[in-house]
Design brief:
Layout: H1 9-15, E1 27-29, H2 31-37, E2 61-67, E3 74-81, H3 85-101, E4 104-109, E5 116-122, E6 137-145, E7 155-164, E8 167-176, H4 185-199
Antiparallel strand pairs: 1-2, 2-3, 3-8, 4-5, 5-6, 6-7, 7-8
Helix pairs in contact: 1-4
């Protein structure tokens, strides 16, 4: 049986990545925890750049966050419904427009009492995927944070967006640019697979080797 043409909040949440989709060692994260830490997937201070990581305001969406340690890497995923396919295509165009306008963006990072403005600059395509072959259309971006004096490995933020019909899903990761972070390829493929399953009217099945819940 075909699924609903446009998913409601319950359907979007069923399509969202959860802890069973991550390798061993990852745990759930929240906006509140990220705010207390002062680090996570960046939130651009420029209004025109926020659509890199979030759907435009007013669009039905659900989100979930994950972290491997208290210092990263961090992942945020957002699934959104756009009313119809034209609306979802417009959302992809909005992402492309933000990418073109935001070769550099800024974010506030660090604990509230000691935060600082940092800058991120566009670099090569997101590690592990360039978005090709994901969904009905997709795109990927990678940003490098301005290096601090004491940093051994640079900080990067990567994001992949894909469209399935009237819906989009974003997967963003931020953390040190080293082997421990891994790439977004497998997560992006799983996110698109789950969204397609739900829009087709199916319930996503957990991956057979899922590790179970972890706490930081």
């Amino acid at each position: 049986m075909a699924g609903p043409q446009v998913l409601d909040e319950e359907g979007l949440r069923a399509a969202l990545l959860d802890h069973t989709d991550f390798p061993m060692g990852w745990a759930g994260d929240s906006d509140e925890q990220a705010e207390r830490r002062g680090i996570g997937v960046p939130r651009p201070t420029e209004d025109g750049c926020r659509e890199l990581f979030e759907p435009a305001a007013g669009q039905p969406a659900v989100r979930a966050g994950f972290a491997r340690t208290h210092t990263g890497p961090f992942v945020v995923t957002v699934a959104a419904a756009h009313g119809d396919e034209a609306g979802a295509r417009a959302a992809m165009e909005g992402f492309a427009r933000a990418a073109g306008e935001c070769a550099t963006f800024h974010a506030e990072e660090g604990p509230e009492q000691n935060s600082a403005t940092v800058s991120y600059t566009a670099g090569e395509s997101a590690s592990g995927t360039d978005g090709a072959g994901l969904g009905e259309e997709a795109a990927a971006l990678r940003f490098e944070r301005e290096a601090g004096d004491a940093e051994e490995a640079g900080i990067v933020a990567e994001v992949v967006i894909a469209r399935i019909g009237a819906h989009t899903v974003r997967i963003a990761q931020a953390g040190r640019d080293d082997a421990a972070a891994g790439g977004l390829g497998d997560l992006a493929e799983r996110a698109v697979e789950k969204l397609r399953q739900v829009t087709d009217g199916h319930t996503p099945r957990p991956q057979p080797d899922q590790p179970g819940t972890t706490e930081l």
